[in-house]
């Protein structure tokens, strides 16, 4: 049975290349959530947490 793991993300007030680079310098991974007929939401995720989830395996499988 599949389980859903939560990944904490924070909303970013600014978008664009400069804001994304600032997030990376701060140790965060910038991203955008699209869909459900809603406007896009810019987010950032802690780099360390994301790497741990990916390296643990089965992160990208459905």
TrEMBL record:
Pfam families: Ribosomal_L25p. This is Large ribosomal subunit protein bL25 L25 domain-containing protein. Keywords: Ribonucleoprotein, Ribosomal protein. Residues 7-54 form the Large ribosomal subunit protein bL25 L25 domain. Gene3D superfamilies: Ribosomal Protein L25, Chain P. SUPFAM superfamilies: Ribosomal protein L25-like. One of its GO terms (biological process) is translation. The keyword Thylakoid does not apply.
């Amino acid at each position: 049975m599949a389980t859903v793991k939560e990944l904490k993300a924070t909303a970013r007030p600014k978008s664009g290349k400069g804001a994304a680079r600032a997030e990376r310098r701060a140790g965060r991974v910038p991203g955008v959530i699209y869909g459900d007929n809603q406007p896009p939401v810019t987010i950032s995720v802690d780099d360390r947490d994301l790497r741990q989830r990916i390296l643990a395996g089965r992160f990208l499988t459905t």
